[in-house]
Each structure stands twice: as structure tokens, then as C-alpha cells.
Write a structure and sequence with these properties.
With 109 residues, the chain is α+β, with helices and mostly antiparallel strands. It has 2 helices and 7 strands; from the N terminus they run βββαββββα. 18% of the residues are buried.
Length: 109
Amino acid sequence: MPQADMPWVRHGAVATAGGRRLQLDSLAWFAWLETISAFCYSSHETRYWRMTVRREKRRQQTYWYGYLRHRRKLHNVYLGKTELLTQARLEQGCRTLTQRARQYQEAPM
């Protein structure tokens, strides 16, 4: 579950705390990503699904990962470095997590 003060990315843009609206894939978007550690992404392709995106440090580098919790199971996907975190990459990550959650839901126990 996302934190209440976590920024949301919806419809290809994010509203910053200062009230500015940043378009994904712009220079301002990539600069903004350097200043935060997590945000929520709501896909317009996969309705009703959203993922939490977190920056994590591994092997002295920082990478972005997407997380989706569905029916008490946490699914994750690697999204890449900051310079690769485009709208297309976020959409693909959300699609992948949605497919994994549905497969897990349909799998026999």
C-alpha cells in the first residue's frame, strides 16, 4: 500500500509537491526522479492496477523496481536505471506485474 504522501504518476504526468505538472520522458522528469526514492504509478492501459516504484541501491548503483501486492502476494519487476525510466518502461512493468498477479491468482494451490 502506498504511503499517503507518496507522489502519484497518472495519465503521463506527475503533480509535484510544489504544484508543478511534469510530463514523463521530459528533462524535468528525469531531474525529478533524482530527488525522490519512490512513487506510485497508475497505468492507463491496465485499468484498476497500479504499482509502487522504488529506487533501491544494489552493488553501489541505484536501480528502480516496481511492486504490486495482490491477494497477499508481493510481485516485483526490475525497471532499470533512472535514465531508462520512461513511460514505455513503466507501462511495460505494470503490464508484467498485472500478468504475474493474474497467473498467480489462476494457479492451483
